[in-house]
C-alpha cells in the first residue's frame, strides 16, 4: 500500500483514490474530504467507488466494514470483470441476477474484450453485493438511484455533484488559444477527461469534420489520456487535421485554463454507467454550453441549461446541428452557458453538498443495519 493510499484511509474513516491519481473521483474526493473534515471526524466510514481498478481496496473495505458508499458510477461490471477470476465472476453474476443467467455470465466473460462498448455489460451493473452491505448509498443523479434500488439498495440519497468556482485570468486563456494557433474569433469545442469509446469520440470527430468543411472558423480540442491503443492511434491520426488539436492529460491548472478557453464542451456518454460527469458540471458552472446525451443521468438538468443529443440513430444529425448552431449564433450559446451557470450555482454548491453529506453520515449513526457481505476480490 503506497503512502497516498494509506493517508486517505487513515483520515477519519475516509476511503478514496489517493490525491493526485489520474481520476476525477480522486479530485472530487479530496475536495470533499477537506470540506467534511472541517466539521470534525467522520462518524462512520465513507467510501468512494467507481468503475475502475483504483477502487479495488476501497471495495473490499466497504464490504468488510459497512458504512456510507458514494457510487460515482452506477455500473461496477467492468471493475469486477478486471478484478475477479472466471469462476468468481460467474458466481458474482449469478449472485446478482440468478442461476438461470449462468450461460449469459459465461458468454459475457468469454467476450469481455468488447466490454468497453458492448451495451450488454452496461445493462448488468452488478451492484447487489455492495448495496446490500452498505448502510447508505449516495449517488449524483436520479438515474443512478433507480439502478441502485433495482439492486437491493434501501437507503439511497441523491446528492448533486458539487461545483467549486475558480477564477482564471483571461490573459491565460487567450495565451492558451494562441499557443495552439487558435484565433480568438474561432469557435472552439472541447472534449476533456479520460477518452474512451463510450464518450462518443468517433461521432464527435465525424460531426466536427463535417462542420469544419462548411465553417473553417471552428476548431476542436481533445485533451486527455485515451484508454485503448486503438483510440490512441486514431487520435494521433486525427491530430494531423489542422483544426483538431490533441493534448494529453492536463494538470488541474491547465484544465482550468483550457476550460476557460473553449467556447463549448462536447460531453456525451453512451452506453452510460449512470455517472454524472464532473467535467460537464465544471464547464456548465463556468458558463459554457455543454452538449450531453439524453438519458436519466442528465434528466435533472433544465432544458435551457444544456443541449441534448438522443443516443442511437439520431445522434449524428443532432450533434452536428447543435455544433453548427453554437458556431452560428454566439448569443444563443452565451444564453445556454448563462442558464447552465445559474443552475449549477443553485443546485451544486460545495457548501450545500457538504452539508447534505454530513446529514447522511449522521443519519446512519446508531441506526440498525442488517446486511454485510464477504469480500469477493482476490
CATH class type of the largest domain: Alpha Beta
- The beta-strand count equals 11
Give helix % range.
Answer: 40-55%
Distance between the termini: 15 Å
Beta-strand level of the residues, as a percent range? 5-15%
**Largest sheet, if any?**
6 strands, parallel
Strand order of the largest sheet: 8-7-6-9-10-11
| Count of individual helical segments | 17
Number of domains: 2
What structural class do you assign from the helix and strand content?
alpha/beta
CATH topology of the largest domain: Rossmann fold
What does the oligomeric state look like here? single chain
Evaluate the radius of gyration: 21 Å
The outline comes out as globular
Could you report the average pLDDT, rounded to the nearest whole number?
A: 93
Task: Identify the CATH homologous superfamily of the largest domain.
Answer: Glycogen Phosphorylase B
Order of helices and strands: HEHEHEHHHHHEHEHEHEHEHEHEEHHH
CATH architecture of the largest domain: 3-Layer(aba) Sandwich
Residue runs with pLDDT of under 50 for 5 or more positions: 1-10
Amino acid at each position: 500500500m503506497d503512502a497516498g493510499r494509506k493517508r486517505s484511509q487513515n483520515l477519519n474513516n475516509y476511503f478514496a483514490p489517493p490525491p493526485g491519481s489520474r481520476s476525477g473521483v480522486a479530485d472530487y474526493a479530496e475536495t470533499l474530504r477537506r470540506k467534511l473534515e472541517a466539521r470534525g471526524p467522520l462518524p462512520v466510514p465513507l467510501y468512494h467507488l467507481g468503475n475502475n481498478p483504483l477502487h479495488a481496496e476501497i471495495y473490499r473495505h466497504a464490504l468488510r466494514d459497512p458504512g456510507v458508499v458514494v457510487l460515482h458510477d452506477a455500473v461496477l461490471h467492468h471493475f469486477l470483470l478486471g478484478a475477479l477470476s472466471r469462476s468468481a465472476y460467474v458466481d458474482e453474476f449469478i449472485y446478482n441476477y440468478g442461476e438461470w443467467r449462468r450461460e449469459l455470465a459465461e458468454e459475457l466473460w468469454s467476450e469481455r474484450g468488447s466490454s468497453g462498448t458492448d451495451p450488454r455489460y452496461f445493462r448488468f451493473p452488478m451492484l447487489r453485493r455492495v448495496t446490500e452491505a452498505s448502510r447508505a448509498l449516495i449517488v449524483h443523479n436520479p438515474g443512478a438511484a433507480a439502478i441502485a434500488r433495482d439492486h437491493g439498495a434501501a437507503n439511497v440519497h441523491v446528492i448533486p455533484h458539487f461545483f467549486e468556482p475558480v477564477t482564471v485570468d483571461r490573459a491565460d486563456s487567450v495565451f492558451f488559444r494562441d499557443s495552439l494557433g487558435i484565433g480568438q474569433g474561432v469557435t472552439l469545442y472541447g472534449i476533456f477527461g479520460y477518452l474512451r469509446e463510450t464518450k462518443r469520440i468517433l461521432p464527435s470527430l465525424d460531426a466536427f469534420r463535417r462542420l469544419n468543411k462548411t465553417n473553417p472558423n471552428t476548431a476542436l480540442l481533445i485533451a486527455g489520456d485515451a484508454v485503448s491503443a486503438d483510440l490512441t492511434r486514431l487520435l494521433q491520426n486525427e491530430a494531423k487535421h489542422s483544426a483538431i488539436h490533441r493534448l494529453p492529460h492536463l494538470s488541474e491548472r491547465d484544465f482550468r485554463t483550457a476550460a476557460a478557453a473553449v467556447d463549448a464542451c462536447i460531453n456525451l456518454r453512451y452506453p452510460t454507467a449512470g455517472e454524472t460527469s464532473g467535467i460537464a458540471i465544471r464547464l456548465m458552472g463556468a458558463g459554457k454550453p455543454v452538449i450531453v446525451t439524453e438519458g436519466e443521468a442528465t434528466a435533472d438538468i433544465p432544458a435551457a441549461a444544456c443541449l441534448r443529443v438522443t443516443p442511437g440513430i439520431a445522434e449524428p444529425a443532432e450533434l452536428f446541428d447543435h455544433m453548427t448552431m453554437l458556431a452560428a449564433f454566439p448569443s444563443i450559446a452565451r444564453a445556454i452557458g448563462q442558464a447552465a451557470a445559474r443552475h449549477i450555482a443553485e443546485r451544486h454548491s460545495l457548501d450545500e453538498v457538504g452539508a447534505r453529506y454530513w446529514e447522511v453520515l449522521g443519519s446512519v449513526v446508531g441506526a440498525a443495519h442488517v446486511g454485510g457481505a464477504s469480500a469477493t476480490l482476490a
